[in-house]
Amino acid sequence: MSTTRTRIEADLKAAMLARNELTRDTLRLVLSDVKKLEVDKSRDATEEDVIGALTGGAKRRQESITQFDAAGRKDLADKERAELAVISAYLPKQMDEADAKRIVAGLIAELKLTSKKDVGLLMKALMAKHKGAVDGKLAQRLASELLP
After folding, report:
1. 3-88 classified as CATH 3.10.310.10
2. How far apart are CA 31 and CA 1, in angstroms?
3. Scanning 6, 9, 41, 69, which has its CA 20 to 30 A from the CA of 31?
4. How confident is residue 95, by pLDDT bands cut at 50, 70 and 90?
5. How far apart are the first and last CA of the chain?
6. Single pTM value for the model
7. Is 96 helix (H, G, I), strand (E, B) or coil?
8. CATH code for 97-146?
9. Strand, helix or coil for residue 120
10. What is the pLDDT of residue 97?
């Protein structure tokens, strides 16, 4: 069992005892995503699977925040922000733009990529090495800037 999943389960129990409904409900949804993944793949979830579930949950909430803000529903957007904060505590630290640029440039040199047609290869290698630590949209933008 992954260490992140163990930590989430322990924090879920603590949230239940503390009657912290927001944390409890958010962690239950994350664990539900992980268990669904286990059923779909017919195996125990790996650390990467748990991080993927967390990343997906964070992404969904970010999209909801954007939509609720556009619709003027501050109450719902604030709830989504609070849930995003709970999920973010379990995600790997995101690289800043300078670190991401350095890593993307290093991969371009390592893989000897020469044109914008190679963005797919670059993204595949980047996500394999740094999944969860690099924002995909940022990496895509940097790749298009750095590739000739």
Report:
1. no
2. 13
3. 69
4. confident
5. 43
6. 0.72
7. coil
8. 1.10.10.410
9. helix
10. 82
